[in-house]
Amino acid sequence: MQLSLGPVLYNWAPERWRDFYFRIADEAPVNTVLIGEIVCSKRSPFIAPYLPAVIERLRTAGKQVLLGSLILTSLPRERRQMAELVDTAELLVEVNDLTCLKPLVGRPHAIGPFINIYNEASAAFHAQRGATRICLPPELPLSSIAAIAAALPNVLIDIFAFGRVPLAISARCYHARLHKLTKDNCQFVCEQDPDGLMLKTLDGAEFLTVNGVQTLSSTCANLLGDAEALREAGVGSFRLSPQDCDMVAVISIFRAVLDGREHVESGTRHLAQLYPDVPFSNGFLHGRAGFLSVAPDARSGQPHQFREPIKPHML
Amino acid sequence: MELICPAGTPAALKTAIDAGADAIYCGFNDETNARNFPGLNFSRDELREAIALAHRRSVKVLVAINTFPRAGAVSLWHRAIDDAVAAKADALILADVGLLEYAARRHPGQRLHVSVQAAAANADAIAFYTETFGARRVVLPRVLSVAEIAGIVRETTCETEVFVFGGLCVMAEGRCSLSSYATGQSPNMQGVCSPASHVAYEQVDGRTKSSLGGFTINSFEIGEAAGYPTLCKGRFTTKHGTGYIFEDLVSLDAATLLARLRDAGVTALKIEGRQRGRAYVEGVVRHFRQALDALDSGLPIDAGQLVPFTEGQATTVGAYHKTWR
Amino acid sequence: MQQNSSSSLFLRKRCPGSSLYSDTMNFSKVPPPAPSPLPVPPLLALAVRPLPLLPLQAVLTVVLLRICGEHPRIFDRLGEHARKRFGIKPTDLPFGFLLEPAPSRPRLSVVRSLPDDVDARISSPLAGLFGLVEGHLDGDALLFSRDLVVEGDVEAVLALRNAIDDAQLDPMAEIASIFGPLAEPLKRTLQIARTVASASNRSHKGI
């Protein structure tokens, strides 16, 4: 089982962003690293100056580097950005919106988790056009993952295995809206929340997080306990999504558990220490509500056991 | 501009025809369409009869098969396509690339529309669908301004269809897992957003609390206008305060923009609401038929009459105005 | 609550040994629905107050059986929800209805208060309920304006709403065709109710 590190989804200060990847390059046992601003095109100029150095450092360290495309492309400026991205022949592009697929047809490329692949037929469609690796949508249950992986033995199937789960993308910026700013003059207020802005229900239960135009879960996906089942299903890679915590350590724990050097329970405990106060979830994988945490042995046909991730109470 | 109207039942379809629809969209009563609600939609027989009736009245019927097939069960969706074609559907509304490929290959003459669930939000994405599958029309996601729509029309040969009234997805359509995060059921997979089976209304301290999958979505005081218990229209709390984080309780009403949409070169106007009753179909379709007639005659368009049908008893033009973002 | 002796007798006969229809039972664990912005039409309340429930029950049973016979598609649309029990409470009437649409034996009972264990409870001024059955009002719009309150099994209510909306029912015509001139008192009452209903709805909706 390989490990891939998803792109940083948050608006981190450019130097921090650079140093994050430098450290990943130097220390993290990860096979593939996704880079690029995929959430908001307005943030792209900030990291642009550091991109070449980051790519260089990662490649020198032996990591495969992929460039991620924007999740939602609508403006002419964004389309130009995507056209330039696709021209970067040297690096594999991970397609997150079909906008940039046409020029990539016939060339090896990757399909990101924001492309709707729910079945073996649509996966095969992309494989026939040059997709060599597919990170499936986080919403997919294990049965679907297994069916897709079985149908495409030559495509590397990557599964979103750690991080707050991206749930939606919008043309509207919720950070700007919350700060009573327009999107065009947003003052990049999303930088105030490097791990997203927590959104609670009226009775105080943590529910979702907001990252500019993107909405993510409040829980953190953690498929460590499901690794064996996913391996059996033909999954070839785990996608770990950067959060505001020690991601080198997170990656190392996943590596250790996957290699059998650490037990799932102890690995999970370590993850909880590294990323405290954020409940884990894996409900999507089990065909349940995504926020739920289902015990790994539930798939053996025993009744589902849920960890109680929310404690609603009246204000 | 064509007026495309929703029908969740054969009775609603008849109502839409009588109220002045140019075309009606509907779906089968299963998970192949994105309004898979209890008691709603068409059996095979009902669809055949409905299409025959509509054709006698010179009205088109577009069949939405716009969920993403479940892995290992794709044949269910293929059968829906075959049956819709056999029932003489005027077009199929599809979102999944596998289904588009199947329909284009198996039924080469069949007119294909790209569903809003495919979220084709720019000319490049649209070109992908037209060139790969011969799609004739794209239903544009509700993330674009009128100016951007005009730009798309200039760049593509594909017909464009835009929403003018009804429920407003705040997130890019077809790319939203909020519902399944709370309930395990999503528009893309099961064809339901915020499924009724997971909705609860509760009276607490004189307020009505709505919840979805155990999460409180909103709380209304007596007499306060309400909306669907969808997550994107919920009231939530952040460190900055409490309110409608994603979108206020509103529905889309673009009646005031009809002239601009026509000038932008839009082919068809779509009314959301296959889950609504005959009264909604009658009221909204007739209103937009009159508005289009007024537009053709250069008369002013009567706006704002449809407020009783809207969430929160309020309307917005949504992303059509750039400032919405 | 003032009880009409004939209805109490009737209810006890229908449900021997059951406390569900107990005269004193407060049907709700939750507070009653909020007063509706639809004004309670005093004319309507006056018109129905003297109406004895037993004859009403008889009329409704016949009407329901006829509707079910003529619109079998209702059961297709209801599906599994046909087995559910729906409590229907016109907020401006001193009684409610218990609808059990099971195809084998559909029942519509008049009750002084709704039993506690219904699967779903639907409350609205009679105007709203009439409008829904006849298809003149949109259920979601009534929910948005808070003229309709749904509690319990929302999915079942949705199925019921869709099934009824598709059936294009005309209860007045059904009553007229079944009872002819014999139905005059009831028809008059319902006609008043409907007139008041649509008038109050028009004034409320501004249309």
What would your notes on this structure say?
The complex is a heterotrimer of chains A (315), B (325) and C (207). With 315 residues, chain A is of the alpha/beta class. Chain A has a domain at 2-164 and 220-274: Alpha-Beta Barrel (TIM Barrel), CATH 3.20.20.70. Chain A is built from ten helices and 14 strands. Chain A has helices at residues 14-27, 44-47, 51-60, 76-87, 120-128, 142-151, 174-178, 227-232, 247-258, 264-274, and strands at residues 2-5, 32-35, 64-68, 92-95, 109-111, 131-135, 156-169, 197-200, 206-211, 214-222, 237-240, 280-281, 293-294, 306-307. An eight-stranded parallel β-barrel of chain A has the order 1-2-3-4-5-6-7-11. Chain A starts with a strand and ends in an 8-residue tail after the last strand. Residues 298-315 of chain A have low confidence and may be disordered. Chain B is α/β, with parallel strands linked by helices. Chain B folds into two domains: 2-168 and 251-324, Alpha-Beta Barrel (TIM Barrel); 178-243, no CATH class. In chain B, 30% of the residues lie in helices and 20% in strands. Chain B has helices at residues 10-19, 44-56, 74-86, 97-106, 123-133, 146-155, 178-183, 258-264, 278-296; strands at residues 2-6, 23-26, 60-65, 91-94, 112-114, 137-139, 159-166, 199-204, 207-212, 215-220, 236-238, 241-243, 251-253, 268-271, 315-316. An eight-stranded parallel barrel of chain B has the order 1-2-3-4-5-6-7-14, surrounded by six helices. In chain B, β9 (207-212) and β10 form a beta hairpin. Chain C is of the alpha+beta class and 207 residues long. Chain C has a single domain (50-199), classed as Nonspecific Lipid-transfer Protein, Chain A, CATH 3.30.1050.10. Chain C is built from nine helices and five strands; from the N terminus they run ααααββββααβααα. In chain C, strands 3-2-1-4-5 form a five-stranded mixed β-sheet. In chain C, β1 (86-90) and β2 form a beta hairpin. The model of chain C is unreliable at 1-40 and 199-207 (pLDDT under 50).
